[in-house]
Amino acid sequence: FADGNPNASIMVIGEGPGANEDKEGKPFVGRAGKLLNKMLESINLNRKNVYISNVVNFRPPMNRRPTDKEILRYLPFLKKHIEIINPKILLLLGSTALNALIGNEIVISKARGKWVRKKIGETNPELIASFHPAFLMRQPDQKKYAWEDLKMIKRKISALKIKLND
Ligand code: URA
């Protein structure tokens, strides 16, 4: 259900495992994962200093998006998972993660690139949504916005004095 460093101050949430993730039992190991790695590397992040999970931890049939019912069933586990990791920064990749954790009424194109402070259980991270790497592979012209969001995260890491060499 996760990969990376459970002691990290930065947590990344995707949608759900694809076929490769299902086979390897780790999030973001396929093509979208390779792009995610590159995105993280561009601001000096990697799986040693971030922690990565998904809204749902099973692969929905035919790789469809998880339904609202499935998301709601997983939500208590996701929130507890976030609470246990206790990140300072929570990056939500794509609309499934955005809608599950911030709200259903907002769209990713409007909500991305904005910091939101939100209490999740006992933890109170700074949340930011950005485009999902699978979406960026289909719409490479949107990568410039993802880059803006990554730069915001880099600035926040400095502002919060997060040490990355843990
Ligand atoms: N897409 C996701 O949202 N999560 C993964 O783990 C892989 C692809």
In short:
The protein is an alpha/beta fold and 166 residues long. The protein is built from 7 helices and 6 strands, in the order E-E-H-H-E-H-E-H-H-E-E-H-H. Bound molecules: uracil (URA).
Q: Number of helical runs?
A: 7
Instruction: List cofactors, ions and other ligands.
Output: uracil
Helical residues, percent? 40-55%
Low-pLDDT runs: none
Rg over CA atoms: 14 Å
Structural overview:
- With 166 residues, this protein is an alpha/beta fold.
- Helices cover 42% and strands 14% of the residues.
- The protein contains seven helices and six strands.
- A six-stranded mixed sheet has the order 1-3-2-4-6-5, with helices on both faces.
- A hairpin with an 8-residue loop joins strand 5 and strand 6.
- Uracil binds at residues 14-18, 21, 27-28, 32-33, 54, 134.
